[in-house]
Specification:
The chain is mainly β. It has one domain (24-80). It is built from no helices and seven strands. The protein has strands at residues 8-13, 25-28, 34-42, 45-52, 57-62, 65-69, 74-80. β2 and β3 (34-42) form a beta hairpin. The radius of gyration is 14 Å and the shape is globular.
Length: 81
């Protein structure tokens, strides 16, 4: 069996939608914009978020309803490969 190279990850606090080079890309929107993995604080709780820097928004799902927020606090980044 060959060795598998599994990356390590960490949460990085960011502001003003500045995207670190090692941010983890989780997909692309229908217009080709990059989507990143984030964590957003909303009403005192942290939620996983889809971060859209091109739109300056993060989207979370609360109670089955998707909410768009203009602030976010952490991005998933790759720390090693």
């Amino acid at each position: 069996m060959s060795e598998i190279d599994i990356p390590e990850f960490a949460w990085k606090t960011v502001s003003k939608f500045e995207i670190p080079n090692n941010s983890y890309v989780c997909g692309y929107s229908s217009n080709g914009s990059v989507i990143y993995v984030g964590l957003v604080e909303y009403r005192g709780c942290l939620y996983p978020a889809k971060v859209f820097p091109s739109r300056r928004e993060a989207r979370i799902t609360v109670g089955g309803i998707e909410k768009s927020l203009s602030t976010w606090c952490k991005l998933l980044v790759v720390t090693s490969r």
